[in-house]
Amino acid sequence: MTPLLTESELREGVRRTAAAIAETYAGSPVTIVGVLTGSLVFVADLIRHLEMPLRIAFVQARSYWGPATQPGSLYLDVSRLPQLRGQHVLLVDDIFDTGRTMEALVRELTRHEPQSLRSAVLLRKQGRQEVALAPDFVAFDIPDAFVVGYGLDFNDLYRNLPYLAVLNQAAAEDASR
Ligand code: IMP
Ligand code: MG
Fold it and tell me: Could you tell me the pTM of the whole model?
């Protein structure tokens, strides 16, 4: 598959985003809440650029079922969250598409009464948003195409590609078998 973002472009975007995050929190401790499974690579790279006190937690969200490239009903699992009351919380996801996942997670995490709640995403797809909410940190704006790699999947495959690619027909067929 042809890269939409190469490994070095991703590295640079993650570095830039980490710098903006570090500047915002100015040394205050932050609890990073990653959204499984797609954010795992982004979270792993992002935290190694963040020289600040931080804790890491994960929630699970799922809106794509099987070989689909359009979202279905949203499933959220927040059962592994630590105490968030009074903490600075940064939600980290792979991609802001319709925004429904982030909107639902913000609503859920707000109930935990954090001191502050912000969001960071690796990618934002242009022209797809269906919510009023906007992420606080965006590493890259990308065109409206289904992308895989760097944590993002199609039918649970291709998360391990070190670059980001637009899913092509052949790869979609391979992953649907
Ligand atoms: P939203 O709720 O529509 O914003 O979708 C967010 C979730 O859908 C992300 O966390 C991704 O897991 C998934 N998603 C959206 N677009 C893509 C894509 O192009 N490739 C892979 N996963 C995607
Ligand atoms: Mg996801």
Answer: 0.96
